[in-house]
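Record type: ASSEMBLY
Status: queued
Input:
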Amino acid sequence: MRAPLADLPVVLANATVVAGAVTILDRVSLTFAAGPPTVLIGPNGAGKTTLLRAAMGLTRLTQGEITWGGRADAPPTRRAILFQLPVMLRRSAAANIDYALGMTDVPRTQRIDELLALVGLQGLGRRPARRLSGGEQQRLALARALARDPAILFLDEPTASLDPAATKAIEDIIRAVAARGVKVVMSTHDLGQARRLGGDIVLLHRGRLIEHGPAKDFFDSPRSDETRKFIAAELLV
Amino acid sequence: MTGETSALQLVLTGDPGLYAIVGLSLLVSLSAVLCAALIGVPFGALLALTRFPGRAGVIVVLNALMGLPPVVAGLAIYLLLSRSGPLGSLGLLFTPQAMIIAQTLLVTPIIAALTRQTVEDLWAEYRDELAALDVGPIGRVATLVWDARFSLVTALLAGFGRAAAEVGAIIIVGGNIDGFTRTMTTAIALETSKGDLPLAIGLGLVLIAIIILINALAWGARRAGERYAG
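Status: finished
Output:
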């Protein structure tokens, strides 16, 4: 089923995004390669969303370069993003997934059922997407992103507005997706979630990359003072 | 009081002349709304999604054309279709077709302008999601028009209201010919000036009832659709 062109690895080299007088992303160099999830953490306004959007190809860099599988100009065929506030198309849940399947040559009904089951929404396909609960909408948006059969999946604070049960449901899906070989890159404010899901952790602050390392090292023996402060739940200003 | 009684009698007894007038009115106005929708919805959606120099001017003109005086629209189509006009050879002047053309000219800006606004608002909401799904320009227009379909019903109703209520355009290009191009509004104008108030009042009541009925049907369809599709 996989398309021949791979989007991995995603390589950011000195990625910089400036809007007006504000530098949102400041010379960030990072590589997202196949493997366990990469988790972005950092205070509000650190540049997490902009980094995800840039890596998705939605936000143009002011300076620096991004390549997807070695190509600088790659249409987003094998990557997908779950926005913090996903938009439900004014259609049924199944039609939302069907829409994302696009022109792909797959047995559609079967694939839609698979995806609905994967996110625990089996049987809800005919419901209007906007009538689903917040947690269900988030899961449907995740299914819709996965309909693209992405090699890399960006998630922008996927559990920010969810209760603990819905959060656990999303985390379980993320684990299942990662276990299938999809590279997950997600942002979160929940350090517990970062520990639970992260293979490696990236700390951003004021657009700069402060520290990047395997989750265990990052939390147990952080290299920078800022990371220590952030983990200790002190305010980074 | 005798006037109102007679008006009611005309309606209740199913006067054939009355029903011919009502039928033609609906045929002309609904055809015009259909034509205007086929032109105005794609045009409005395209305008919502494109950026080009002079776009602001186009939007202002389009919005202003919502207030195009019917007599001016009628005059323009009259000049176009009159014997010496560019399309005079078609022989359409003083026919129901000419009336449909004139009302299409009136209604298209309304539908296009309201579609532009609706689709542009929805686009602001959908932009990121559609960009992430790599949807091309035609797909965007189709998606936004489809997802705005319930809101666009209101644009169509506004257009229908305009068409059903106006008299200036169709009286100029239709000529108010008895049994051929006479509609409810042109008949009301004529009967009132002739002093035949019962018929004028009867037609007025029927016209208002039909407009309410069509709006009620559209409202019901919209509610049912929303319940089903969200």
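Annotation: Helices of chain A lie at 48-56, 93-101, 108-118, 134-146, 164-179, 191-197, 215-220, 225-231.
Annotation: Chain A touches chain B at residues 56, 58, 75-77, 80-81, 83, 86-92, 99-100, 102, 127-131, 148 (CB under 8 Å).
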